[in-house]
Amino acid sequence: MNAKKWITSALILMSANSMAAGGFAEARCAAWGDNLTQPQAAERWKWAMKCDVANSRILWTYREYTAPDGSKRPAYPIYGLLDQDYKKEPSNPLGWFPPKSASADCNIPENYEIVGFCAGGCYTADQLILVDGRELFIKDMLESEIKNVMTLDQDSTLDSIATKPGKVFSYMKSIVSGVHPIIKLTTDSGKNLSVTLEHPLVKADGTFIVAQDLEVGSKLLNEFGEIEVVTSIAQEEVEGKVYNLRTEGAEETDRVIVAQGLLNGDLTVQQRKANKANQVLLRKKMIRGELIK
User: Fold this and answer.
1) pTM value?
2) Which among 123, 198, 245, 248 could bridge 127 via Cys, Cβ 3.0 to 4.6 Å?
3) Is 75 within a domain?
4) Which pLDDT tens digit goes with each residue over 63-96?
5) Residue 73 in contact with residue 120, Cβ under 8 Å?
6) Residues 183 and 241 in one domain
7) Residue 32: what are its φ and ψ, rounded to 5°?
8) Which of left, alpha, beta for 139 (phi over 0: left; psi -120 to 50: alpha)?
9) In angstroms, rounded to a whole number, what is the distance separating the alpha carbons of residues 4 and 35?
10) CA pair distance 52, 44, nearest whole angstrom
């Protein structure tokens, strides 16, 4: 093994160890300004798998970041120049970052190598979550370490929806501020919601749908079981951090909370494959006549 490859292996091993400890390489991403959202992280990873074949094994191994609470987020590689002294920090003299699109050209600057991995970063800070009969901003909930949240009652059906007091297991906040693609929607009753593209909501038929798949005319459910028709929807880029929470409980209904008056899936639901979730929910709803149990 030549010196360059040995240095690369040593740095990747260091990255792997920091990732296992939950530290990852966020400081480097923040310092270099290479902060990606979860969808962008997934695209970067696909691009690297296509264009950096020599490192495909490493990329596959570290395709996800696992947080201390067990939650997972897409991981993405960052590139730079390695120093012959592996104890010194890598550098990025060209200020070059790999593309955020899997279909982009495979142009990697000479001598640039993978020098670490970072995690992609849900609700914007000003979204209101139902807590014990009152609504709180999710940012304030995290900062105040609020442990209570209203979740869907396990006996709820499409004809009879009710909420009950639930518990927050953990919160998620993007590690650094950045630009996030956000879906902003409005319903016919005037409800407004701003979430990341992959955020799950409950449709009128009792299945989940991710925000980016919504369109004008889509039908959602509010906390009272009433149908809310989407009247406007737009994708915007928002600067700052995004937030989410994971609930406690063994029932699927424990994973449904109320945000801005609409039924939303929690972080656990968001991390599932949407199609799989839809099949399970719809099948069980048809068999047992229940919403999400």
Assistant:
1) 0.57
2) 123
3) yes
4) 887 654 455 678 889 898 887 665 677 888 999 9
5) yes
6) yes
7) -85, -10
8) alpha
9) 27
10) 11
